[in-house]
């Protein structure tokens, strides 16, 4: 992996519009049964504009930025050797249907450990007003030759 | 909306939530569609075996996704989850016939009185072995 990637900031990914049915579909997939995740009335009663996404839905928004990193020609990342090591989400607020979110990836660190490389990528997600929603951080391990 | 737990009512070590999640191959296909992660190691045995795995695995992000749900329900409002992190340490093999059952136990790991945040530590196991390391959700109980 190219060590000069460290500190690189990628261009913002195209905005992601959070759909109500997508939130419901994702909620079912992660066994989220709370009415706030499925029923707009329940969500409004709880003070939200629309159905609320489960915490890890942020990965769907983050994905476009990881694709930028993995497809970067100069990165030297062999996708077939990538293993997801760690994942973290730090929230300012939950994601709600109707949000238009823009994610920007920064390569926080690149490390080599034995034959393996590790890249930590931080995707900063903001809403249409530019306010922070969530930072999604992934550490990807790229296995070396065995 | 359920009432929030109070920080004062918690002690380190208290079990606050938990659950048992039966996964089938259908669960993996459903998560693939919902998340957009179509890596074939999560639905094709031949591909999984060709890359040295014993068989089809659950998406790590699926396990991370459901493991926090008991904590979200306990907290009462998803906005109280201010931070959630995991390390993927072991795969969850999902048998085509029998599926896989993943168990979650959520305990109070630490209490930050000043920030009004409880750190909830998740023990997530499959076949009596932990599949996530350092699985922690920070819950704001201000």
Automatic annotation (TrEMBL), chain B:
This is Acyl dehydratase. It comes from Cryobacterium tagatosivorans. CDD domains: SAV4209_like. It comes from the Bacteria. Belongs to the enoyl-CoA hydratase/isomerase family. Gene3D superfamilies: Hotdog Thioesterase (3.10.129.10). Residues 20-106 form the MaoC-like domain.
């Amino acid at each position: 992996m190219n060590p000069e990637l460290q500190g690189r900031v990628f261009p913002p990914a195209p905005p992601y519009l959070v759909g109500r049915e997508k939130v419901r579909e994702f909620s079912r997939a992660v066994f989220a049964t709370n009415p706030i995740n499925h029923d707009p009335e329940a969500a409004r009663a709880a003070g939200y504009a629309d159905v609320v996404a489960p915490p890890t839905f942020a990965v769907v928004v983050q994905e476009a930025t990881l694709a930028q990193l993995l497809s970067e020609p100069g990165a030297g990342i062999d996708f077939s050797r990538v293993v997801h090591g760690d994942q973290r989400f730090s929230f300012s607020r939950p994601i709600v249907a109707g949000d238009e979110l823009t994610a920007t990836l920064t390569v926080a660190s690149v490390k080599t450990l034995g034959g393996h490389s590790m890249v930590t990528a931080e995707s900063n997600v903001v809403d249409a007003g530019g306010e922070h929603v969530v930072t999604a951080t992934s550490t990807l391990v790229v296995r070396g030759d065995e | 909306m359920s009432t929030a737990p109070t920080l004062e009512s918690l002690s380190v070590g208290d079990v606050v939530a938990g659950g048992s999640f039966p996964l089938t191959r259908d669960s993996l296909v459903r998560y693939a569609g919902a998340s957009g992660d179509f890596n074939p190691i999560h639905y094709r045995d031949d591909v999984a075996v060709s890359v040295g795995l014993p068989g089809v695995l659950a998406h790590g992000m699926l396990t991370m996704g459901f493991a926090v749900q008991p904590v979200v329900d306990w907290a009462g409002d998803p906005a109280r989850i201010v931070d959630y992190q995991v390390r993927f340490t072991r795969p969850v093999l999902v048998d085509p016939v029998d599926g896989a059952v993943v168990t979650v136990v959520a305990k109070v790991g630490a209490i930050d009185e000043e920030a009004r945040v409880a750190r909830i530590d998740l023990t997530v196991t499959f076949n009596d072995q932990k599949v996530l390391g350092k699985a922690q959700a920070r819950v704001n109980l201000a």
